[in-house]
From TrEMBL:
Residues 224-503 form the YjeF C-terminal domain. Residues 9-216 form the YjeF N-terminal domain. The lineage of its organism: Bacteria, Bacillati, Bacillota, Bacilli, Bacillales. AMP binds at K413, G414, P415, Y416, T417, G442. This is Bifunctional NAD(P)H-hydrate repair enzyme. NCBIfam families: yjeF_cterm, yjeF_nterm. GO terms for biological process: metabolite repair; nicotinamide nucleotide metabolic process. Homotetramer.
Length: 509
């Protein structure tokens, strides 16, 4: 499913109108009716409903919703919260249809008149502003939103909560605090930002009949289980282990053996054909007991940490991963640089590897083969020098800029993970739950991603699939055997079997 900015949404509407002959009034009718259908299961016959209608096309949707619900017998008061002269075009046409249908339209002039209606409502439908919002809310919308947020009622928003920016990078706003939002046609970027997502409440997307074949391409996409099923590499029955990637994973230290162990086991569970773990010699016995299928390359160590002189042989591998449990010591830099320069296949850098990478961004830029970085926002802030707050407010733009500047694939982890290719194409994965907010789940993700990268020509698909597989595993596990509290990273590794069984297409002979 495409994710759009306000500008991209306007372009889509425009293309629909110009290329098919459908007109704005038809789209508004369709948007309003689809929204009413979507809201109906959330409201009851006896509920007093108030529909708040603004000046633009979002208000136009509001006229259609109010009319549709009244025609269906619901108890609805429709309130136009802006002066008559502000309503024009398609919205005015739908106001006429509303009034010509015999329904009463109330008009806001003074707060004292309006408040009793607001306060008797059990359900508030917000059709005041959508993607056309500019700047902070002006009067009287600002006061109406404030009162609506204070009033105990079910708050439903149309397209986006009034006042909320559709895009990223805006932090100065007041907005309707919705329990649920019916999004028109495509989720907007602000659905996926930490500071704006709570205003949407739960949400779903309704389709209003835009011509899919004609719509301009948007390189921002919500990657779902359906996409995973369509793009997962298929294992055929005559497959050979050498065909599924031969990888080397470097990392681990005496005090952190679990990271590399879980990453390695996750990579194997994700289909890696042959895996070598290059790690501090002293921890090989403990790691091998957890990952019996791997082979080992013992690296020189000092005080339990891999030293900078350690240079695993890379030429016989299809790809490499580095960083899990490596430790943040200066000497680790030598190993990361070695990997950057000598790895002749795709390379994944995670965790402490990212920390070391900061001082060798030029070498990163010079690498021409696919490189994948998997930072969480803190690590990304460290790598870029951009404050973490700013990263959280503009993750799409900052990811795109970094991926393009350094020619890397970036997996910016979070409740919504954003995966960016060097050409700027982006995918969002929204699977997973708070059970993942624990040490080790990032290591498991790296293992899954590495396994997927080794088996697919298309790195962006491999990473998108890996993220959804990892998050869906956490989702399955908390529905069935675990809770968000007790879920451990090692449970995820074992849970992968269930996810792969569910997601894999049946193998062909
Ligand atoms: N053809 C289309 O464009 C369609 C649009 N649709 C709906 O139309 C919406 C977009 O319509 P518009 O572009 O008219 O935009 P909006 O309806 O979001 O609002 C624009 C109006 O809000 C006022 N406004 C902007 N910022 C304000 C602020 N800070 N305080 C107070 N008032 C402010 C502007 O003066 C303008 O009159 C979408 O979100 C969607 O709900 C749907 O009906 C489907 C078709
Ligand atoms: K709205």
């Amino acid at each position: 499913m495409d994710i759009v900015t306000a500008q991209e949404m306007y372009e889509r509407d425009q293309v629909a109108i110009e290329s098919t002959g459908i007109d704005g009034k038809m789209l508004m009718e369709s948007a309003g009716r689809s929204a009413a259908d979507d809201l109906e299961p959330r409201i009851k016959r006896e509920d007093q409903i108030i529909v708040l209608i603004g000046a633009g096309n979002n208000g136009g949707d509001g006229f259609v919703i109010a009319r549709t619900l009244l025609n269906r017998g619901y108890k609805v008061e429709a309130w136009q919260v802006v002066p008559d002269e502000k309503i024009s075009g398609d919205a005015e046409a739908h106001r006429n249809i509303f009034e010509n249908s015999g329904f009463e339209l109330k008009k806001f002039s003074r707060m004292e008149e309006f408040l009793p209606s607001l306060y008797q409502a059990a359900v508030i439908i917000d059709a005041m502003l959508g993607i056309g919002v500019e700047g902070r809310l002006r009067s009287p919308l600002a006061e109406i939103v404030e009162k609506a947020n204070e009033h105990e009622a079910l708050r439903l928003a149309i397209d986006l909560p009034t006042g909320l920016p559709a895009g990223e990078g805006v932090h100065d706003f007041d907005a309707f605090n919705a329990d649920y939002t019916t999004i028109i046609e495509a989720p907007k970027v602000s659905v996926f930002l930490q500071h704006t997502t709570p205003y949407y409440g739960e949400w779903s997307v309704v389709e209003i009949g835009l011509p899919v074949k004609k719509l301009p391409e948007v390189k921002r996409y919500l990657w779902s289980v359906k996409d995973v099923k369509q793009t997962m590499p298929k294992r055929v029955s005559h497959s050979h282990k050498g065909k599924h990637g031969k990888g080397v994973m470097a990392g681990g230290s005496y005090y952190m053996p679990g990271s590399i162990a879980m990453a390695a086991r996750a990579a194997l569970r994700s289909g890696t054909g042959l895996l070598t773990i290059a790690t501090a010699e002293s921890i090989i016995p403990s790691v091998t007991s957890y990952v019996q299928e791997a082979t080992f390359s013992g690296l020189a160590e000092k005080e339990g940490m891999i030293t900078g002189q350690a240079t695993p042989e890379l030429s016989k591998y299809d790809g490499a991963a580095i960083g899990m449990g490596l430790g943040r010591h200066e000497e680790a830099g030598g190993l990361v640089l070695h990997m950057l320069q000598e790895c002749k296949g795709p390379l994944l850098i995670d965790a402490d590897g990212l920390y070391a990478l900061k001082s060798m961004l030029n070498a990163l830029k010079n690498r021409s083969l696919p490189t994948v970085l998997t930072p969480h926002p803190g690590e990304f802030a460290y790598l870029t020098g951009v404050p973490i707050q700013e990263i959280l407010q503009s993750p799409f733009r900052l990811s795109r800029e970094f991926a393009s500047a350094y020619g890397v694939h970036l997996v910016l982890k979070g409740p919504y993970t954003i995966i960016t290719a060097p050409d700027g194409e982006q995918r969002v994965d929204m699977t997973g739950n708070a059970g993942l907010a624990k040490g080790g789940s990032g290591d498991v993700l790296s293992g899954v991603l590495f396994g997927m990268m080794l088996q697919s020509e298309n790195i962006l698909n491999a990473l998108s699939n890996g993220c959804v597989i990892h998050g869906s595993t956490a989702d399955f596990l908390i529905q069935e055997e675990h809770s968000k509290t007790d879920l451990l990273a090692s449970d995820l590794v074992e849970g992968l079997s269930r996810t792969f069984r569910t997601f894999s297409a049946p193998s062909k002979a």
